[in-house]
Amino acid sequence: MPTFCKDIGADSRSTMPRCPAAAPVRGSFTPQRSGRPARRQSVRVQALTTGTGGKKVSKVVLAYSGGLDTSVILKWLQETYDCEVVTFTADLGQGEELAPAREKAKAAGVKDIFIDDLREEFVRDYVFPMFRANSLYEGVYLLGTSIARPLIAKRQIEIAKQVGADAVSHGATGKGNDQVRFELGYYGLQPDIKVISPWREWDLNSRSKLISYAEERGIAVPQSKRGEPPFSMDANLLHISYEGNALEDPWVEADESMFTRSVSPMAAPDEPTYLDIHFEQGNPVGISGQRLAPHTLLTALNTLAGQNGIGRIDIVESRFVGMKSRGVYETPGGTVLLTARRAIESICLDRGESHLKDDLMPRYAELVYNGFWFTPERLALQAAIDATQKYCTGTVRLKLYKGNTIIVGRRSQFSLYDEKIASFEDDGGLYDQKDAAGFIKLQALRLRTLGVARTQLGRLRNPDL
């Protein structure tokens, strides 16, 4: 018998059952490369002249996960800039314990430690607006990493103002997109803020150098960090990404043991799972009769979709900085949500609205991917997109089965679908089929004119035709 979704339950700290063999998930702002310092004096001079234009830094807010990389960054900032460091750790639903980050920050001498639960704000004010645009970067990527960066940047700036900091710092590498996303967010919210990007300033370019730096300064190095990791990971409530090292060859298939939020489609249940998703003005508000808060709803969708092998993609994307990058992503709940949103729009949006949204979507997705969240053009597009969602209220029924998200029903009190008009049976005069003849002739007028004119031109050039 099919499985029906019911009793979704309350909020959970974990987004999905984890695969025991999986590598630990890093925080959403954890650096993804490693290295070791040069001599302290030379590194400090370089940082003071390149990172902040030679200006003295008194206090900096660091996006901090408590992992090895950001622990090294914390110490490096203290030594290099001789400044006070404030740590900020964001709970975006990455599914890892955040309390150790506080203890590690205390051990490093940090006085102001911020650990904020941003899951509700993340889904409500960032994920859902992006999904109202049906956003897909290059037609496939659901922008799970991209959409988290503006919120982290926003909160860092808020903390900087609160504690009187004159700089912010992140752990993104100099090759990736995240450095751009973070810093465009910083400057968009506080144009005069100083930004310190350690990976662009130091020469810590190997795992052994990073570990040596940590050991010299008494920073604990977990045994799992002593070897080169098979790939880097970034997680939040919307998705988890895997990149680098073992995944850098786009011809090599990702190992099954890597995945943490979904079973293989081949191992998914042999019976489908049915569920209803309820929408109000374009936003999902409940599942199968149960109203849920945004982050709880996405957590529930992650579980249901992951159990049915849904949400895996393996892509090569075009980074904003100019290179191609191979990434493997798990976005189970988001994959189901996008399919359901398209279904409710199919009956609630006018053709012109729907097609205009499809025209705008690639531009919107590119803005999100490139880090232009806090820009007038993104806000203008958002206003246009949201104007189309006023009547997107109703219910979509789906069947989840072995990696597939299948629409089996949709209904709305604002539906534009008229069964009487669409029917092949007698419509009672609602549609006069004879009208189609004039409609077609008008549409064909330019084609007929074009054909006649060019045929005549061809005969003038070649009288023998």
Automatic annotation (TrEMBL):
- Per UniProt, the enzyme's principal EC class comes to ligase
Region Disordered, annotated ranges: 1-40
The lineage's top-level taxon is: Eukaryota
Record's GO cellular component terms: cytoplasm
Query: Which GO BP terms, alphabetically?
Result: argininosuccinate metabolic process; L-arginine biosynthetic process; urea cycle
Boundaries of each Arginosuccinate synthase-like N-terminal domain copy? 59-219
Q: Which InterPro entries match?
A: Arginosuc_syn_C, Arginosuc_syn_N, Arginosuc_synth, Arginosuc_synth_CS, Arginosuc_synth_type_1_subfam, AS_cat/multimer_dom_body, Rossmann-like_a/b/a_fold
Subunit comment: Homotetramer.
Protein name as annotated:
argininosuccinate synthase
